[in-house]
Amino acid sequence: MDEQTDKPVDNVPIARLSEMSPTPTLFLPHQQWALTNPTPNPEARHSEMWDQIPGLPTDLKGKVTITLSPVLGVGGNAVVYEGQLNFNGVSHAVAVKVAFIKRDVNGSLLKEETARSVAREMRISRALQHPNIIHCYGMCYDPVALQLFSTIPALVFAQCSGKGAMKYLSNNPSTKRLPLVTGVVDGLAYMHEFGIIHGDLNPRNVLIKIDESGIRAVLNDFGSSAIVSEDTTWLGDDIDYSAPEIKTKESQVTTMSDIYSLALTILAIVSDKPAFDGDYVKAPEMDDSMWKCIVACWAQTPEARWTASQVVSFLAQMKA
């Protein structure tokens, strides 16, 4: 558990979210903005394949329960719990993301900045409606967050049964990689089409969704995402997968820095191992066309890299 949690939470009983929570006044100034879609508003794509629940409100008060241990994941910015969303008599598996309060260089809590960050993530996550992007159902006020992280709301996402891509592939080595790579690229191209930058693309932010339509890759974690027309300062955590031009906190992310990260993410998915600086080697079993695509995406000069739509077209030719 991150040091910001102050104490373990394993002994806190499973609780219905928001029944014990006061009015989340810290988040209120950001709530209206968070629920406003970016411009242009992303179109829904293949809505029959993403996890929509008709009639579900954004405020999920009284509709979500969580299991506090074991956690689904812990990162530098948040902890994610497994939960159940109950609506109209149907239970849906969800992932409940609770943000850690950010701290400045002196260790002081930055509650306002954290509230803005959560609002940004919710705004972007709810706007994106694509089968290769994790679906955000809404927000709730988590008693764990109240005890440890103040009254900033938790975000509720669809849960992916296959969990992380790299772990899934390790356990299922015969899985075909091209469809997964295509899914990652399709999701990223959709984001870029509507002026949204992921900002922290890496294998840990690729999940595996398994349902009646089959197995597909799903992009996750938009806490570092940005809208092109707004402030695009890099907020990501994983410098190993970031483009060389943005490896300082003052750098600006772009769609082309996403493409560099895409190249390393594809390499990791295809080769079954993390891709780091100095380890960019074509595996003997790798298809020459896939290697050509990767090399075109990690060009040192941003302007020389392929766009996401170019990668989509190239992969379509490989599948033909």
Annotate the secondary structure layout.
Elements: H1 28-34, E1 64-67, E2 73-74, E3 78-87, E4 90-99, E5 102-103, E6 109-110, H2 111-127, E7 136-140, H3 143-149, E8 154-158, H4 165-171, H5 177-193, E9 196-197, E10 206-211, E11 214-219, E12 226-227, H6 255-271, H7 288-297, H8 308-319
Antiparallel strand pairs: 1-3, 2-3, 3-4, 4-8, 5-6, 7-8, 9-12, 10-11
Helix pairs in contact: 1-2, 5-6, 5-8, 6-7, 7-8
Question: Key features?
Answer:
320 residues; alpha+beta; Phosphorylase Kinase, domain 1; Transferase(Phosphotransferase), domain 1; 2 domains; six-stranded antiparallel sheet; two-stranded antiparallel sheet; 8 helices
Structure description:
- With about 325 residues, the protein is of the alpha+beta class.
- The protein folds into 2 domains: about 160 residues, Phosphorylase Kinase, domain 1, CATH 3.30.200.20; about 160 residues, Transferase(Phosphotransferase), domain 1 (Orthogonal Bundle), CATH 1.10.510.
- The chain is about 30% helix and about 20% strand.
- It has 8 helices and 12 strands.
- The strands form 4 sheets. Strands 1, 2, 3, 4, 7 and 8 form a 6-stranded antiparallel beta sheet that branches.
- Helix 5 runs antiparallel to helix 8 and helix 7 packs antiparallel against helix 8.
- The longest helix is centred in the middle third of the chain and has 17 residues.
- The N terminus is likely disordered.
- One of its GO terms (molecular function) is protein serine/threonine kinase activity.
- This is Protein kinase domain-containing protein.
- InterPro entries: Kinase-like_dom_sf, Prot_kinase_dom, Protein_kinase_ATP_BS, Ser/Thr_Kinases-Pseudokinases.
